[in-house]
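Person: Please comment on this record:
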Amino acid sequence: MADRRLQVFHAVAKHGSFTRAAEHLFMTQPAVTFQIKQLEEHFDTRLLERGHGKVTLTPAGEIVFAYAERILSLSEELEARVSELTDELSGHLHIGTSTTIAAYWLPRLLEGFKRRYPRVTPRVVVGNSQLTEERVAARDLDVGLIEIVSDLPGIERRSAARDELLVICHPAHPLARAEKLAARDLVGHAFINRDPGNAIHILAEGFFRAGGVADDDITICAELGSLATVKHLAAEGLGFAIASSAAIQRDIREGRLVAVPLDPPLYTPLEVILPRDKFRSRLITTFADYATEQLARMANAPMNTL
């Protein structure tokens, strides 16, 4: 329902380019240029400055952009709320998720949800748990799927399940022969860590400290945002890592990695978070309920089904 000129202007301002906005909107560049020209004529002022391959906002453009974001958001919310009266959920759902959940839990979660509600369009942003938590609290995202327990005041959290964290390494690594590994057992071995803000990075720090191991005693050989890269380096014998059980089942079955439990056991929570909102849409509530239920079900399923 929102004015098409505002939609086009918002896309150009957001992407900083007429070309990228045209690609995003599936429009031709001349059509984008025409819509911007129409909007500038309506306000009788220039809204965008073109130059040096990038588009920037004029002072008037800054004002229009701020209002465009609010108008477009309200228009989308209006569509979703009215459609709820028909008992058929529809609209866009903005989901943030950690990298592990995105890779090993989210595909089946979305498949089941889309089969129930085919008119819903999920828009997924993948990042570490801390970043996702912050974006949900700021209402940039409708719902988050994370691996840390949120204590932010603007967040409503639902504990869905938990997944055990295990040490992973090459089958010939010295740690591979252990039945379980305490924090002290890991000192002196190269540690392939996750990036700061990642749930496993945070939990590993707590595990070492609880085990009496100082930060300086940990030999970190890399800090990586990609779980696939972490597993690859561990499988090549460059060090050990700590990973979610769900994320390593295929690697263990195929013999690329060995997994050893930690002592004491360490678990990553699987949490569904959403902004505290008195007037939350039924779409967001329905997905949060579904995600909580399905994550619990999948966590209790046999590991060979993951």
The longest helix spans residues 59-84. DSSP finds eleven helices and ten strands in the chain.
